[in-house]
Design goal:
The chain has twelve helices and eleven strands. By secondary structure, the protein is of the alpha/beta class. It has one domain: D-Maltodextrin-Binding Protein, domain 2, CATH 3.40.190. The strands form three sheets. It has a five-stranded mixed β-sheet, with helices on both faces.
Length: 343
């Protein structure tokens, strides 16, 4: 017995004196964006920075290109513990915090300054909405302004009457916009869009210029209508339960690096979207403009009606009024910020 006691004592002494070994936390992350795109490049840079800053204690396993399914699939898998984090557009964000989709509402924003101002003003409130839904915002990652791409030229709302327009299945903001315009879109998942364009089931889509190229949808359309129907907001989220497994320093690293890398992603995406218009033109896409100021005013009126139709379904009338009032104040002030940029 004395012999075994001595062996146990020696083993215990070795364990106590050995340097601390931290278990690696591997965060499983999914995104619809293919590798090589601005979104995935930023995510890979972020993952490398987190690994370096935490000395390998926190790493990411990245599933790109939609291999884990649509955004709703990713959210379901996160809740089941099969995934831990993801990059989401408005459709995914709306599954967690529906009111945040006010940022995607039809014909609301006209330029980047307006987006930055409103998001900074409501940043804390939006983050709290995700926290209440069980998620932590690692960073806002804007997708960009979305435009209409069709087989026929569009310069006014009546030109869309005969377009077989796609809408992302389960996207209430796009559905409301098209309903206000007076058309009935065809709901499909993102994965089904290309084949549906090929077969003629649809002949119209909405997308950012960069995504049109990344997804190759431009090869099946002919025209781009140069009036944005909405801004597509995005964010990188991690499940709160997974975030809570990290120590305070690791959590701080994830959030601070997130602000840096995903703000840079937004800036890069804006530049890439602008340059992508030139690329689309070089590929044969013809860009059409609104027929007149009256045509623009008509679309904006429809957008206001669509935003009102989403009250009670996504967000409250109070939140919509606050956002529209903040935007009006910004425009009245000549586009000058009156609130700090928290992003």
């Amino acid at each position: 017995m004395n012999f075994f006691k001595q062996v146990f004592a020696v083993a215990l002494a070795v364990l106590v004196s050995a340097p601390a070994v931290f278990a690696e936390t591997n965060i499983k992350f999914a995104c619809l964006a293919p590798r090589g795109t601005a979104w995935m490049n930023a995510m890979e840079q972020y993952a490398d920075a987190v690994k370096k800053e935490t000395k390998g204690e926190v790493t990411f396993k990245i599933y790109a290109g939609g291999v884990q399914g649509d955004e709703k699939d990713v959210i379901r898998k996160i809740r089941l513990g099969q995934l831990h984090a993801g990059a989401f557009t408005g459709v995914g964000l709306g599954e967690i915090a529906p009111a945040v989709r006010v940022m995607d509402s039809p014909f609301l924003f006209k330029n980047y300054g307006e987006i930055d101002y409103v998001l900074a003003k409501f940043d804390d409130r939006f983050r709290k909405m995700f926290q209440d839904g069980g998620y932590v915002v690692l960073g806002w990652a804007e997708v960009g302004f979305a435009y209409l791409y069709t087989d026929v030229p569009v310069t006014k709302d009546t030109d869309l009457k005969n377009v077989k327009m796609w809408t992302w299945e389960g996207d209430p903001t796009a559905e409301a916009a098209f309903k206000a315009i007076g058309i009935s879109p065809i709901p499909l998942s993102v994965a089904d869009v290309m084949s549906s364009l090929q077969t003629g089931l649809i002949n119209g889509v909405y997308s950012t210029p960069l995504a049109m190229i990344a997804l190759q949808w431009f090869t099946k359309t002919k025209y781009m209508f140069d009036l944005s129907i909405a801004n597509a907001e995005g964010a990188v989220l991690i499940y709160q339960k997974q975030f809570d497994k990290l120590n305070a320093d690791q959590q701080k690293t994830l959030t601070e690096l997130g602000k840096k890398y995903f703000r840079q992603l937004t800036e890069n995406a804006r530049k890439d979207n602008e340059s992508s218009v030139a690329t689309l033109k070089s590929k044969g896409i013809k860009v059409t403009s609104p027929a007149s100021p009256a045509a623009v005013a008509q679309f904006e009126k429809m957008g206001a009606n669509a935003r009102q139709s989403l009250v009670g379904r996504l967000y409250s009338s109070e939140l919509l009024k606050e956002v529209e009032t903040a935007l009006a104040d910004y425009r009245k002030n000549g586009g000058k910020k009156t609130a700090p940029d928290k992003k």
